[in-house]
């Protein structure tokens, strides 16, 4: 799973996820991309499941770029614990995603295979996405 090697602080506020993506909203590396159309959190498990689905569909042909990195710790208190006694321990890591963010990019495959791979990958994600291409097809 993806996670930072080290961070300055162990725990983080929840924050608000409003507005649209200011960075990472254009295709930079590949010919086809998966763009988020709604906001949310994408966990390291979601990223890994999507990556596996895309690479297996492409049958190890072409390249895949992951454009998001989970750098926000999500904490949880143990089950059946009473309220109080501080914030829970970090359980997993997420990347904060806003609408317009490019999540994955692929290159080196034809149009039909790219659409099929990204559609299967999009099914693994917890929010709505759409497939975009550099040429605008």
Give an account of the 3D structure:
It is a single chain. This protein is of the alpha+beta class. 20% of the residues lie in helices and 28% in strands. The chain has two helices and seven strands. The chain has helices at residues 44-58, 111-122; strands at 32-36, 40-43, 63-66, 72-76, 89-97, 102-107, 129-133. The chain has a four-stranded antiparallel β-sheet, covered by helices on one side. Strands 2-5-4 form a three-stranded antiparallel β-sheet. Helix 1 (44-58) packs antiparallel against helix 2 (111-122). It is elongated. The model has no long low-confidence stretch (mean pLDDT 95).
- Count of helical regions: 2
Using only C-alpha atoms, the radius of gyration works out to 17 Å
Average predicted local confidence, pLDDT: 95
Q: Enumerate the spans where pLDDT stays under 50 for 5 or more consecutive residues.
A: none
Please trace the helix and strand order, writing H or E for each element. Answer: EEHEEEEHE
Q: Classify the beta-strand content into a percent band.
A: 25-35%
Write the layout of secondary structure elements.
Elements: E1 32-36, E2 40-43, H1 44-58, E3 63-66, E4 72-76, E5 89-97, E6 102-107, H2 111-122, E7 129-133
Antiparallel strand pairs: 1-6, 1-7, 2-5, 3-6, 4-5
Helix pairs in contact: 1-2
